[in-house]
Amino acid sequence: MADALPSVRVVKAASIVGTATMVSRITGFVRDIFIAALLGAGPLAEIFVIAFRLPNLFRRLFAEGAFNAAFVPLFSERLEAEGLPAALEFAGRILSVLLAFLTAFTVLSMVFMPGLVLAIAQGFSADAAKFDQAVYYARIAFPYLFFISLLSLFAGVLNATGRFLAAAFAPVLLNIVLIGAALAALMTAGAPLDYLIWGVSLAGVAQFVLVVFAARRAGLKVALREPRRDPYTGRFFTLLVPGILAAGIGQINLLIGTSIATAQAGAAAWLYYADRLYQLPMGVIGVALAVALLPDLTRRIARADLAGAHASQDLAVTLAMLLTLPAAFGLYVLADPIVNVLFERGAFTPEDTAATAAGLRYFCFGLPAFVLVRALQPSFFARQDTRSPLIDGAVGVAANITLSLALFGQMGHVAIALATSVAGWLTLLLTLVRLTRRGHWRPGGKIARALGVQIAACLVMAGVLGFAAQNWVPLADFADHAFAVRVGLVAGLVGLGSVVFAAVCFAGGGLRDLRGLRDPARLHKQP
What we know:
Elements: H1 6-39, H2 43-82, H3 84-111, H4 113-120, H5 128-141, H6 143-160, H7 165-188, H8 192-217, H9 231-246, H10 249-261, H11 267-302, H12 306-333, H13 335-343, H14 350-376, H15 378-381, H16 387-411, H17 414-438, H18 445-472, H19 483-507, H20 520-524
Helix pairs in contact: 1-7, 1-11, 1-12, 2-3, 2-5, 2-6, 2-8, 2-9, 2-10, 2-11, 3-6, 4-5, 5-8, 6-8, 7-8, 9-16, 10-11, 10-16, 10-17, 11-12, 11-14, 12-14, 12-18, 13-14, 14-17, 16-17, 18-19
């Protein structure tokens, strides 16, 4: 029998993940404030971005993206069909293979690190000293991948059994360790890049220990098992390969953009800081919904509860739009003052603020698409289909490469952000067409009406913020104010925008469909 409230579980799980992710993003901003002050947007910052991005790229491809897409549906399916011991035995066999693969991959990557650095930082090839430093620091940071990928298996087990907090909180440890490293560099007057990069690897160990301990406390002991070929294990690897690209399309686009941007001095750092800002709503909303939705959809599809699956997907899309659209409009309008408050100090100059804000505005254009793709992909993954998102994402990657190369010469680093956003919308369009044709999900009249109200509310909000910024809170001399005043001004504008958006949505009836939280079947019914 279908659960009476299928979407309440999704909302509760998404709230847990979203709250932990918000804490992670806030501590991440504190971390980036220190990094910007210590390194600015010059050569040291660019080296840090490349050395840090390499293990993070592979982590998001192998661990967060592909691994979850392949592992969680199969673990959940076995859990439903055969019980927890059989599911944990399956996890143990995957752990054995994963451990062997990661060991070999990490060693080979350390050996061939010059080639990897060249692949994502082709602009460094013109400066031998800068390139050699990037290789050196990338080797120090790369073991982070080993621990964080092993963490993903234990996180998948926890998520599939309805325990989301520990895995969602783990990224906070990375930020805490790097903040500590930055403080140590300041107190000892040491080389900040050395402290930060060594902190990356140390943070990987800390995050791994946290999640393994949480799994053991929950009675979820995953022991190494002798790998053997069975239907579940074979299916896992069949799903894994296309899942690497399907769930990591955003990272592939970012990798391409970073590589092209290294041809312009400072561009890689500007895009890194801009990426950190738009990733806040992306992580809190898109990632939280995707993580919470996948186990729920998998269980419902396994039980043939298609109405419940549709209801959960409807709710995920409704919440994604409600939270992402005002974030995108608000970040666009307030890009300059937000970047100023967060990063402009120490080695980070007003010119860096202007360049970072320009990139952020172009990223904002694609933010709703990025979040909706993350919210819709679980409909494929829950059906053990990683091939379809791969195809749709590959088209987006091709568009991103083409536009980036075509526009970079004329537009500089903002061309990367624009191309990434266009690729996001193209991927979303293809995803919607595929879901609709297969009958997996289609947006109904209520979602269309809610979207119309939300867009209208965003336009009103943007107009009010623009008027306030020009008349009540002049931004022309914003940088001349004391830091506390600037923080207060930004907070006031964000609060004003939130109130205006909520008021217009309420007046227009854009919040009525959230009654589906209490009765998800109501949200699914079409008028």
